[in-house]
Amino acid sequence: MLKSLFACGVLGVLLMPVQSQQISVCVEDDGDLRVDCQIEPKANKISSYEFSWSLGTKEALINTNVSGSASEAQFRDKSEVVELDPHGYRMTLKGFTETLPHNTTYMCKISGQVESINVERDHLAPCSAVSMFLKSPWSWITSLLLLVYHTHS
Ligand SMILES: *[C@@H]1O[C@H](CO)[C@@H](O)[C@H](O)[C@H]1NC(C)=O
Ligand SMILES: *[C@@H]1O[C@H](CO)[C@@H](O)[C@H](O)[C@H]1NC(C)=O
After folding, report:
1. Ligand 2 pocket, 103 CB below 6 A?
2. Does the beta carbon of 54 sit less than 6 angstroms from any atom of ligand 2?
3. I need a surface site. Which of 27, 45, 53, 153 has the fewest CB within 10 A?
4. In 3D, which of 93, 83, 92, 88 has the Cα closest to residue 110?
């Protein structure tokens, strides 16, 4: 009983940083910028998304389907949004990775809830590495469970 409580606690701690990270930014293999926004929309709200970034004090709207607001012309045809499973949206932006300013704040808004993350250009990770990182808690848990199992059999 105590042991399983302990295992639950460890599991919770390992999963928490992943769960609370509702926005992530990375660079795809082909050089496109990818912003994943995994805010869970409230059940009673119309689902809508808005991706933007802020360079210093200047905010630019990259892609949205909020009725009444429009993204900046320079991003049309360059950005694309797809739905993520089980919830959230992924925005990809072509052709800006090379010219990103040093320090950028990426923001996304889903049904009125906002998440933001500040990433320096030099710290932009390739998406393949990010997905490895996101999977790693599971390999940790698997090893842990195997260890517990083995020491008791
Ligand atoms: C925005 O797009 C999503 C997914 O394509 C759709 O479910 C939602 O209704 C759209 N929202 C608006 C305000 O058009
Ligand atoms: C980047 O910008 C954010 C928000 O404006 C600021 O808090 C942070 O200190 C800046 N980082 C660097 C390294 O300039």
Report:
1. yes
2. no
3. 153
4. 88
Instruction: Report the residue among 37, 47, 83 best suited for mutation to probe ligand 1: largest number of ligand atoms under 8 A from its CB.
Output: 47
For the chain, the straight-line distance linking the first and the last C-alpha, in angstroms and rounded, comes to 17
In this prediction the pTM is 0.73
In angstroms, what is the span from residue 53 Cα to ligand 2's centroid?
A: 13
Where do we find the tokens 């993350």? 117
Task: Going residue by residue through the chain, which has 153 residues, state the pLDDT in tens, using 9 for 90 and above.
Answer: 556 655 555 554 444 444 457 999 999 999 999 999 999 888 777 789 999 999 878 899 999 999 899 999 999 999 999 999 989 999 999 999 888 888 899 999 998 899 999 999 999 999 997 555 555 555 655 665 656 666 666
Angle subtended at Cα 97 by Cα 130 and Cα 52, rounded to the nearest 5 degrees: 85
- For residue 82, give the ligand nearest its CA: 1
Cβ–ligand 1 distance for 69 under 6 Å, the answer no
Ligand 1 atom closest to the Cα of residue 83 is: 4
Which of 94, 87, 106 is closest to 48 using CA atoms?
87
